[in-house]
Amino acid sequence: MRIGLVGAGRIGAFHAATLKGLPAVDQVVVTDVDASRAELVAKDLGLEFAADVDQLLSSGLDGVVITAATSAHAALIGKAVAAGIPTFCEKPVALDLAETQQVVALVEASGVPVHIGFQRRFDLGYQAAAEQVRSGALGFIHHIRANTNDAFPPPQEYIPTSGGFFRDCTVHDFDILRFVTGREVVSVFATGANRGEAFFGEYGDVDAAAALLTLDDGTFVSVSGTRYNAAGHDVRMEVLGSLGSVAVGLDEHTALKSAEAGVSFPGGEPHATFMDRFRPAYVAELTAFTEVVAGSREVPCTVRDALQAFRTADACELSRRENRVVLLEEIGA
Fold first, then answer.
1. What is the average pLDDT value for the chain, to the nearest integer?
2. What residues does 234 pair with on adjacent strands?
3. pTM score, two decimals?
4. CA geometry: angle at 146 spanning 142 and 147, to 5°?
5. Which domains does the chain show, CATH number per domain?
6. Contacts of 10-19 spanning 24+ positions with Cβ under 8 A
7. Confidence class for position 196, pLDDT limits 50, 70, 90
Protein backbone atom coordinates (compact mmCIF):
# COMPACT_ATOMS: atom_id res chain seq x y z
CA MET A 1 0.00 0.00 0.00
CA ARG A 2 0.94 3.64 -0.53
CA ILE A 3 0.99 5.78 2.64
CA GLY A 4 1.34 9.55 2.82
CA LEU A 5 2.93 11.32 5.79
CA VAL A 6 2.32 14.97 6.72
CA GLY A 7 4.93 16.44 9.04
CA ALA A 8 8.65 15.68 8.82
CA GLY A 9 9.80 16.74 12.27
CA ARG A 10 11.27 14.40 14.90
CA ILE A 11 8.25 12.12 15.35
CA GLY A 12 7.38 12.40 11.64
CA ALA A 13 10.81 11.19 10.52
CA PHE A 14 10.61 8.43 13.13
CA HIS A 15 7.21 7.28 11.81
CA ALA A 16 8.38 7.54 8.20
CA ALA A 17 11.24 5.14 8.93
CA THR A 18 8.86 2.79 10.77
CA LEU A 19 6.35 2.81 7.91
CA LYS A 20 9.08 2.08 5.38
CA GLY A 21 9.95 -1.08 7.29
CA LEU A 22 6.41 -2.49 7.46
CA PRO A 23 5.71 -5.43 5.12
CA ALA A 24 2.32 -4.05 4.07
CA VAL A 25 3.75 -0.68 2.95
CA ASP A 26 5.16 -0.42 -0.59
CA GLN A 27 5.85 3.32 -0.62
CA VAL A 28 5.80 6.31 1.73
CA VAL A 29 5.28 9.85 0.42
CA VAL A 30 6.39 12.71 2.68
CA THR A 31 5.40 16.37 2.86
CA ASP A 32 5.77 19.19 5.38
CA VAL A 33 4.96 22.89 5.64
CA ASP A 34 8.75 23.24 5.38
CA ALA A 35 9.21 21.55 1.99
CA SER A 36 12.98 21.41 2.32
CA ARG A 37 12.71 19.45 5.56
CA ALA A 38 10.33 16.93 3.97
CA GLU A 39 12.57 16.62 0.93
CA LEU A 40 15.58 15.91 3.15
CA VAL A 41 13.74 13.20 5.13
CA ALA A 42 12.50 11.63 1.89
CA LYS A 43 16.01 11.62 0.45
CA ASP A 44 17.60 10.18 3.60
CA LEU A 45 15.08 7.33 3.79
CA GLY A 46 14.64 6.71 0.06
CA LEU A 47 11.00 7.83 0.04
CA GLU A 48 8.86 9.95 -2.29
CA PHE A 49 8.40 13.68 -1.72
CA ALA A 50 5.30 15.85 -2.25
CA ALA A 51 5.54 19.63 -2.38
CA ASP A 52 2.40 20.22 -0.30
CA VAL A 53 -0.59 18.55 1.32
CA ASP A 54 -2.87 18.93 -1.69
CA GLN A 55 -0.33 17.24 -3.95
CA LEU A 56 0.13 14.50 -1.36
CA LEU A 57 -3.59 13.78 -0.99
CA SER A 58 -4.08 13.62 -4.75
CA SER A 59 -1.18 11.20 -5.32
CA GLY A 60 -3.15 7.96 -5.06
CA LEU A 61 -2.78 7.24 -1.36
CA ASP A 62 -4.27 4.27 0.48
CA GLY A 63 -3.78 5.96 3.84
CA VAL A 64 -2.28 9.07 5.42
CA VAL A 65 -0.35 9.61 8.66
CA ILE A 66 -0.49 13.07 10.28
CA THR A 67 2.49 14.06 12.44
CA ALA A 68 2.36 17.82 11.85
CA ALA A 69 2.11 20.47 14.57
CA THR A 70 -0.88 20.06 16.89
CA SER A 71 -2.43 23.29 15.63
CA ALA A 72 -2.74 21.74 12.15
CA HIS A 73 -4.29 18.40 13.18
CA ALA A 74 -7.97 19.33 12.90
CA ALA A 75 -7.66 20.92 9.45
CA LEU A 76 -5.53 18.05 8.12
CA ILE A 77 -7.96 15.43 9.42
CA GLY A 78 -10.72 17.38 7.69
CA LYS A 79 -8.84 17.38 4.37
CA ALA A 80 -8.03 13.68 4.55
CA VAL A 81 -11.62 12.76 5.45
CA ALA A 82 -12.95 14.93 2.61
CA ALA A 83 -10.67 12.97 0.27
CA GLY A 84 -12.01 9.69 1.71
CA ILE A 85 -8.55 8.52 2.83
CA PRO A 86 -8.14 6.38 6.00
CA THR A 87 -6.16 8.50 8.44
CA PHE A 88 -3.80 8.11 11.38
CA CYS A 89 -3.20 11.26 13.44
CA GLU A 90 -0.94 11.73 16.43
CA LYS A 91 -2.72 13.00 19.52
CA PRO A 92 -4.36 15.37 20.18
CA VAL A 93 -7.15 15.80 17.65
CA ALA A 94 -7.16 19.57 18.20
CA LEU A 95 -5.93 22.24 20.61
CA ASP A 96 -9.24 22.84 22.38
CA LEU A 97 -12.39 20.98 23.36
CA ALA A 98 -14.77 22.72 20.97
CA GLU A 99 -12.64 21.98 17.91
CA THR A 100 -12.10 18.40 19.10
CA GLN A 101 -15.88 17.92 19.30
CA GLN A 102 -16.25 19.35 15.79
CA VAL A 103 -13.72 16.86 14.42
CA VAL A 104 -15.47 13.98 16.19
CA ALA A 105 -18.78 14.97 14.59
CA LEU A 106 -17.15 15.33 11.15
CA VAL A 107 -15.35 11.99 11.30
CA GLU A 108 -18.30 10.03 12.65
CA ALA A 109 -20.61 11.45 10.00
CA SER A 110 -18.13 10.64 7.21
CA GLY A 111 -17.58 6.94 7.86
CA VAL A 112 -13.87 7.36 7.01
CA PRO A 113 -11.70 5.46 9.52
CA VAL A 114 -9.53 7.78 11.65
CA HIS A 115 -7.06 6.25 14.10
CA ILE A 116 -5.63 8.54 16.82
CA GLY A 117 -2.11 7.83 18.04
CA PHE A 118 -2.02 6.80 21.70
CA GLN A 119 0.81 4.30 21.43
CA ARG A 120 0.61 3.01 25.01
CA ARG A 121 -2.41 0.92 23.96
CA PHE A 122 0.05 -1.17 21.92
CA ASP A 123 2.62 -1.63 24.69
CA LEU A 124 2.71 -5.26 25.87
CA GLY A 125 2.89 -4.29 29.54
CA TYR A 126 -0.27 -2.18 29.44
CA GLN A 127 -2.03 -4.87 27.42
CA ALA A 128 -1.13 -7.49 30.03
CA ALA A 129 -2.35 -5.23 32.84
CA ALA A 130 -5.64 -4.65 31.01
CA GLU A 131 -6.13 -8.41 30.63
CA GLN A 132 -5.54 -9.02 34.35
CA VAL A 133 -7.94 -6.24 35.34
CA ARG A 134 -10.70 -7.35 33.01
CA SER A 135 -10.33 -11.06 33.82
CA GLY A 136 -10.81 -10.35 37.52
CA ALA A 137 -7.41 -11.83 38.40
CA LEU A 138 -6.60 -8.79 40.57
CA GLY A 139 -9.98 -8.74 42.33
CA PHE A 140 -11.57 -5.33 42.66
CA ILE A 141 -9.25 -2.42 41.89
CA HIS A 142 -9.00 0.16 44.66
CA HIS A 143 -6.04 2.32 43.60
CA ILE A 144 -4.03 3.04 40.47
CA ARG A 145 -0.84 5.10 40.33
CA ALA A 146 0.41 6.43 37.00
CA ASN A 147 3.28 8.71 36.09
CA THR A 148 4.88 10.31 33.04
CA ASN A 149 8.28 11.81 33.80
CA ASP A 150 10.23 13.27 30.88
CA ALA A 151 14.01 13.18 31.13
CA PHE A 152 14.32 16.77 29.88
CA PRO A 153 11.92 19.59 28.95
CA PRO A 154 10.84 20.45 25.42
CA PRO A 155 12.15 23.65 23.80
CA GLN A 156 10.51 26.93 24.75
CA GLU A 157 8.92 27.41 21.33
CA TYR A 158 6.93 24.19 21.76
CA ILE A 159 5.07 25.28 24.90
CA PRO A 160 2.66 27.94 23.48
CA THR A 161 1.12 25.41 21.07
CA SER A 162 1.38 22.32 23.30
CA GLY A 163 -1.97 22.79 25.01
CA GLY A 164 -0.36 22.68 28.45
CA PHE A 165 0.98 19.89 30.65
CA PHE A 166 -2.24 17.95 31.15
CA ARG A 167 -3.34 18.08 27.49
CA ASP A 168 0.14 17.36 26.12
CA CYS A 169 1.77 15.01 28.60
CA THR A 170 -0.56 13.30 31.08
CA VAL A 171 -3.29 12.94 28.44
CA HIS A 172 -1.48 9.66 27.62
CA ASP A 173 -2.10 8.51 31.19
CA PHE A 174 -5.76 9.48 30.92
CA ASP A 175 -6.20 7.47 27.73
CA ILE A 176 -4.38 4.36 28.92
CA LEU A 177 -6.33 4.48 32.18
CA ARG A 178 -9.55 4.03 30.20
CA PHE A 179 -7.94 1.27 28.13
CA VAL A 180 -6.67 -0.71 31.13
CA THR A 181 -9.76 -0.38 33.34
CA GLY A 182 -12.63 0.00 30.87
CA ARG A 183 -13.98 2.70 33.23
CA GLU A 184 -14.61 6.43 32.91
CA VAL A 185 -13.35 9.33 35.02
CA VAL A 186 -16.11 11.16 36.93
CA SER A 187 -14.16 13.77 38.89
CA VAL A 188 -10.66 15.25 39.23
CA PHE A 189 -8.66 17.44 41.59
CA ALA A 190 -5.38 18.67 40.13
CA THR A 191 -2.47 20.90 40.99
CA GLY A 192 0.76 21.97 39.33
CA ALA A 193 3.85 24.11 39.71
CA ASN A 194 6.60 25.76 37.70
CA ARG A 195 9.79 24.36 39.26
CA GLY A 196 12.22 24.75 36.35
CA GLU A 197 12.59 27.22 33.49
CA ALA A 198 10.51 30.37 33.86
CA PHE A 199 9.11 30.15 30.32
CA PHE A 200 6.55 27.52 31.41
CA GLY A 201 4.98 30.02 33.78
CA GLU A 202 5.22 32.78 31.20
CA TYR A 203 2.84 30.78 29.00
CA GLY A 204 0.53 29.87 31.86
CA ASP A 205 1.83 26.31 31.96
CA VAL A 206 3.49 24.12 34.61
CA ASP A 207 6.40 21.69 34.45
CA ALA A 208 5.28 19.43 37.31
CA ALA A 209 1.73 18.33 38.07
CA ALA A 210 -0.39 15.84 39.99
CA ALA A 211 -4.05 14.87 39.92
CA LEU A 212 -6.40 12.66 41.92
CA LEU A 213 -9.05 11.08 39.69
CA THR A 214 -12.13 9.13 40.75
CA LEU A 215 -13.51 6.51 38.36
CA ASP A 216 -17.16 5.61 37.90
CA ASP A 217 -16.73 2.47 40.06
CA GLY A 218 -15.10 4.38 42.93
CA THR A 219 -11.48 3.52 42.09
CA PHE A 220 -8.96 6.21 43.05
CA VAL A 221 -6.24 7.10 40.55
CA SER A 222 -3.21 9.30 41.22
CA VAL A 223 -1.47 10.71 38.16
CA SER A 224 1.77 12.67 38.35
CA GLY A 225 4.39 13.95 35.96
CA THR A 226 7.28 16.29 35.35
CA ARG A 227 9.34 17.74 32.51
CA TYR A 228 12.51 17.34 34.63
CA ASN A 229 13.55 13.77 35.39
CA ALA A 230 17.22 13.60 34.49
CA ALA A 231 17.39 10.01 35.78
CA GLY A 232 15.61 9.01 32.56
CA HIS A 233 12.27 8.85 30.78
CA ASP A 234 10.02 7.15 33.32
CA VAL A 235 6.50 6.00 32.42
CA ARG A 236 4.82 3.51 34.76
CA MET A 237 1.45 2.35 36.05
CA GLU A 238 0.73 0.43 39.24
CA VAL A 239 -2.64 -1.32 39.51
CA LEU A 240 -3.54 -2.33 43.08
CA GLY A 241 -6.32 -4.85 43.56
CA SER A 242 -7.92 -6.82 46.39
CA LEU A 243 -6.34 -10.08 45.15
CA GLY A 244 -3.12 -8.88 43.57
CA SER A 245 -1.18 -5.98 42.09
CA VAL A 246 0.78 -5.41 38.89
CA ALA A 247 3.16 -2.74 37.64
CA VAL A 248 3.73 -1.64 34.04
CA GLY A 249 7.16 -0.22 33.18
CA LEU A 250 8.92 -1.79 36.16
CA ASP A 251 11.96 -3.46 34.60
CA GLU A 252 15.73 -3.15 34.25
CA HIS A 253 15.30 0.19 32.46
CA THR A 254 13.19 1.87 35.17
CA ALA A 255 14.66 5.25 36.04
CA LEU A 256 14.77 4.64 39.78
CA LYS A 257 17.46 3.57 42.22
CA SER A 258 16.69 1.75 45.47
CA ALA A 259 17.73 3.37 48.74
CA GLU A 260 17.83 -0.06 50.40
CA ALA A 261 21.19 -1.64 51.17
CA GLY A 262 22.25 -4.45 48.88
CA VAL A 263 19.53 -3.91 46.29
CA SER A 264 20.85 -3.56 42.75
CA PHE A 265 17.52 -3.62 40.86
CA PRO A 266 16.96 -1.98 38.48
CA GLY A 267 20.42 -2.23 37.04
CA GLY A 268 19.91 -1.43 33.36
CA GLU A 269 20.28 1.78 31.38
CA PRO A 270 17.19 4.01 31.74
CA HIS A 271 15.33 5.10 28.62
CA ALA A 272 16.34 8.55 27.40
CA THR A 273 13.17 9.47 25.46
CA PHE A 274 9.61 8.33 24.85
CA MET A 275 10.72 6.95 21.47
CA ASP A 276 13.20 4.66 23.22
CA ARG A 277 10.61 3.58 25.79
CA PHE A 278 7.83 2.85 23.29
CA ARG A 279 9.65 1.88 20.09
CA PRO A 280 7.99 -1.59 19.82
CA ALA A 281 4.60 -0.04 20.61
CA TYR A 282 4.98 2.48 17.78
CA VAL A 283 5.72 -0.33 15.33
CA ALA A 284 2.67 -2.26 16.54
CA GLU A 285 0.52 0.87 16.36
CA LEU A 286 1.41 1.67 12.74
CA THR A 287 1.06 -1.99 11.82
CA ALA A 288 -2.47 -1.81 13.22
CA PHE A 289 -3.11 1.26 11.08
CA THR A 290 -2.13 -0.63 7.93
CA GLU A 291 -4.70 -3.24 8.93
CA VAL A 292 -7.29 -0.48 9.30
CA VAL A 293 -6.36 0.75 5.82
CA ALA A 294 -6.70 -2.80 4.47
CA GLY A 295 -10.13 -3.09 6.03
CA SER A 296 -9.18 -6.09 8.18
CA ARG A 297 -9.35 -4.27 11.53
CA GLU A 298 -11.61 -1.80 13.29
CA VAL A 299 -10.05 1.49 14.41
CA PRO A 300 -8.33 0.67 17.74
CA CYS A 301 -8.33 4.23 19.09
CA THR A 302 -11.08 6.48 17.76
CA VAL A 303 -11.57 10.23 17.73
CA ARG A 304 -14.17 9.70 20.48
CA ASP A 305 -11.56 7.92 22.61
CA ALA A 306 -9.31 10.93 22.10
CA LEU A 307 -12.17 13.25 23.08
CA GLN A 308 -12.66 11.41 26.37
CA ALA A 309 -8.96 11.69 27.29
CA PHE A 310 -9.00 15.36 26.29
CA ARG A 311 -12.04 16.03 28.50
CA THR A 312 -10.13 14.63 31.49
CA ALA A 313 -7.13 16.80 30.64
CA ASP A 314 -9.39 19.85 30.33
CA ALA A 315 -10.97 19.04 33.70
CA CYS A 316 -7.51 18.81 35.29
CA GLU A 317 -6.46 22.15 33.83
CA LEU A 318 -9.67 23.80 35.10
CA SER A 319 -9.15 22.21 38.52
CA ARG A 320 -5.56 23.44 38.67
CA ARG A 321 -6.53 26.98 37.77
CA GLU A 322 -9.55 27.19 40.08
CA ASN A 323 -8.19 24.99 42.89
CA ARG A 324 -11.31 22.84 43.16
CA VAL A 325 -12.79 19.46 42.36
CA VAL A 326 -14.13 19.39 38.79
CA LEU A 327 -16.80 16.93 37.65
CA LEU A 328 -16.34 15.53 34.14
CA GLU A 329 -19.96 16.41 33.40
CA GLU A 330 -18.84 20.06 33.46
CA ILE A 331 -16.52 19.45 30.50
CA GLY A 332 -18.64 18.98 27.39
CA ALA A 333 -20.89 16.02 26.66
1. 96
2. 149
3. 0.95
4. 160
5. 2-120+283-302 (3.40.50.720), 124-273+309-330 (3.30.360.10)
6. 11/67, 11/90, 11/275, 12/41, 12/67, 12/68, 13/41, 13/44, 13/45, 14/275, 14/282, 15/65, 15/67, 15/282, 15/286, 16/41, 16/45, 16/47, 17/45, 18/282, 18/283, 18/286, 19/65, 19/286
7. very high
pLDDT of 300-329, one tens digit each? 999 999 999 999 999 999 999 999 999 999
Sequential DSSP letters for 79-120: HHHHTT--EEEESPS-SSHHHHHHHHHHHHHH---EEEE-GG
For 22-71, what is each residue's pLDDT tens digit?
999 999 999 999 999 999 999 999 999 999 999 999 999 999 999 999 88
Q: Kindly compute the dihedral angle of the four CA atoms of residues 39, 43, 47, 49, in this order, to the nearest 10 degrees.
A: 20
Number of residues in the chain: 333
Report the DSSP beta bridge partners of residue 224.
147, 210
